[in-house]
Amino acid sequence: MKYYSLRHQSPPVDFRTATITGQAPDGGLYFPETIPKFPPGLRRELRSLSKATVALNVMRPYVGATIPDSDLQRICAEAVDFEFPLVPVEAGVSALELFHGPTLAFKDVGARFMSRCLGYFAQRGDTPAVTVLVATSGDTGGAVASGFLGVSGVEVVILYPSGKVSPVQEQQLTTLGQNITALEVSGTFDDCQALVKQAFQDPELSQRRFLTSANSINVARWLPQQLYYCFAWQQWPADAPAPVISVPSGNFGNLCAGLLAQASGLPLGHFIAACNANEPVPAYLRTGTFTPRAAVPTFSNAMDVGNPSNFVRILELFDNDLTKMRAALSADTVSDEDTVAAIRAVWESERYLLEPHGAVAYTALRRYQAQHPAAQGLILATAHPVKFPEVVEPIIGQAIPLPEAVQHLQNRPKRSVPLAVDYEQLKAYLMT
To answer: Which fold has domain 83-106+222-402?
Structure first.
């Protein structure tokens, strides 16, 4: 498998190079030259296979010859070594819970897969010491920090927007130490992402540090997200129509991975890009014009992205054909008021606790079902409610018990480096 830059100004590379470099030299995102079809029989056998076996079958064509099957099997098994239950919420709606990993967020799979791939490449001795530079709107940073903690030959630098992540998210970013450093930026996630992109394009900095990204712009972070949809389909009733899938969407890597799995042969139904007030993609689907915007802060903070990086991959997947995209994908915009109303209504009627991102997906799905009454659907529950106590606890009138996975972070001192929205400050830090 080769990967090409979506700016088409750099030569194709293999999986190893795409993973190590993160972005192409021309600043473009890498995209697979071909979309592999699932192996013969995989779709028929999928329901009986282990998660690790599914992961190996899905990821093998993307990795190619860069990692032997024996090592890739271990990497895949470790990346998906927790549960992904499909839980009934109410009639017509189920939730695929993706928050049972070590950092209580869906990004654990991609972070664990990528960290182990980089670890394998580093052990071979032909990979330079790497600095993983990543921007986070909340969950990416925690998953990356956990996934890369203690990985030899890898330093992790995480930029996060000050005051715009939840307390648990900030603990996951700032308390681990070792090879993990958190830069607390006095701006938005888009500011953090812009600083990171500028660093990758700085030739002087690239001579001092070998940089790679662990955001979903990196193929090793993005591609494993297809597995969620395989795990959902394993649990979907065999005699039911293909599910409508509502995906909380910020940087659009998760949704793009689902569309990729569908293109590979997974029998999924219509997709919904469930967005908060940050709506450049819903606007594009309405008007055909994509206009980046300044990010607007909302209760679903991990989706506060005004210029989603992975949308260019979705455009490529549909050959930049708006008609094709509209046939497979719709989008909705959900306000904070409607987000709160959904959390309250589902808790009171079903005693199922949504967090803000899941509530956005739930609301978008219910609106779609109002127009398509026969549709059965699922939402991707991307984070544990404990990450958003300031929103959720006043609604339900009680504290959310702290899961065991994050109890060890309590009372650890916060360690972060303050940073202005100033590239020269970031460069100076990285050049030291």
So the answer is: Rossmann fold (3.40.50)
